[in-house]
Amino acid sequence: MDSGAWRGFPFDWYPPAPVLVFPFPPMLAALKHSLPIGDQWLYEPKLDGFRGLLRHGTNGHVQVLSRNLRDLAPSFPELVQAAPSLPAGTLLDGEIVIADESGHADFGALQQRLTVARRTAGQVVLQRPAVLLVFDVLELEERLRKRTRVRPAVRS
What we know:
Elements: E1 50-56, E2 62-65, H1 77-82, E3 90-98, H2 107-115, H3 121-127, E4 130-140, E5 143-144
């Protein structure tokens, strides 16, 4: 499709990102009524943010996507700007978070970021930048990584 086809679209200067196809869907949390017990389990705090996927493609193209593959790049230009520091062909899975003045996650600020016009997102970034707290490297230089244990399993 040529760029002329986008004339008249409200954001004709920002063409849609190419569709990203994953070899597997993002892992989602499951509701449990009790925590598993044992030395083989590790826990981390629940972060009040959005699930985010950050890709630095081999062609230099950057994508910031929700778990439903919604394009979040216009709302989080600071993540787009940071992505080229990753090796080409990298895909990260994590939580997008904005902290308040005391360093706690501010979900309201994150929601407001989605309503900020693309023209003013850069100004908002300077006041309250978002970060991607990565919990999984899905691809590194285009190679899929198998999940590895954080520490060796304990056998008795």
